[in-house]
Amino acid sequence: DVTSELGDCAGADLIVFVTPSTVLRQIANRLQRFIGKSDAVLLSCTKGIEHQTGMRMSEILREIFPGHRIAALSGPNLAVEIVQDLPTATVIGCDDVDCATTLQGVLGSSRFRIYTSQEIVSVELGGALKNVFALAAGISDGLKLGDNSKAALVTRSLAELVRLGVAMGGNANAFYGLSGAGDLIVTCYSERSRNHTVGKRLGRGEPLSNITASMKAIAEGIPTTRSAWECARRLNLATPIIDQAYAVLYEEEKPIAALEKLLRREQKPEQS
User: N or C end of the chain: which has fewer CB within 10 A?
Assistant: First the structure.
């Protein structure tokens, strides 16, 4: 049965969080009084980083529900294709191997292949940060910059994702899996990606306020860009693509001006 009552979660063995990242803390706090003493497994499918605190979604849940087992699911999973029962793969990150394996068995199917990982930090950060770069890829398409330019942008985006992700506690190798490189590829190239669509409309010259007003769902890349930019500043990291995405979204930078700033950067060795 469909319900809007949080109290109906009392007694559940598994609670899946699919809220927008900006309200996850609020919803979790409201839910706490109903399940605070239960042993339900909490699974976050929300891809984001909290503004100001820089906390991942599982960290927020762990703060509010300290006694619960917590996991995160992330990967190249466009909802519309999952609903159509098209084959896809994803990864569940969890410190508890047995918990991850149990979730794998409960949620997986022949059309929804689930891998497990203990690298929950990387799983969450890969899923969150790729949305920022999907906005940038969409802007590239909106500006009609071509395939060569987009391939370079996505490749450098992966390097930037790994750089920031490692500085935030992730494992470099894990970012080359489903919830890093895999999710980055699909979100940067798919016309079904909300974040790519927002970026494409920005590149065509539409104001952000008009774009968001016309959408029925959240493009997580918008709030995550601000959070990622804040994290990079705290860590004193060079994140040129995130910086220009932030400038377009929050400083009214014109997309073509942001592109010019990226192109004028000093040339250097690829692996530096």
Answer: N
135 and 192, same domain (yes or no): yes
Domain extent at residue 27: 14-120
Number of domains in the chain: 2
Query: For the CA atoms of the chain, what is the radius of gyration?
Result: 19
Look at residue 4 in the predicted model and tell me its pLDDT: 86
CA 123 to chain centre: 9
Per-residue model confidence (pLDDT) at position 272: 64
Spatial contact of 167 and 190, defined as CB atoms under 8 Å apart: no
Question: Mind telling me the catalytic residues?
Answer: 130
Same domain membership, residue 137 and residue 201 = yes
Percent of the chain's residues with pLDDT above 90: 94
Q: Which two tokens stand for residue 51?
A: 């503004």
Query: Is 90 exceeded by the pLDDT of residue 271?
Result: no
> What CATH number is given to the structural domain containing 33?
3.40.50.720
Helices (H) and strands (E) in the chain, counts: 12, 5
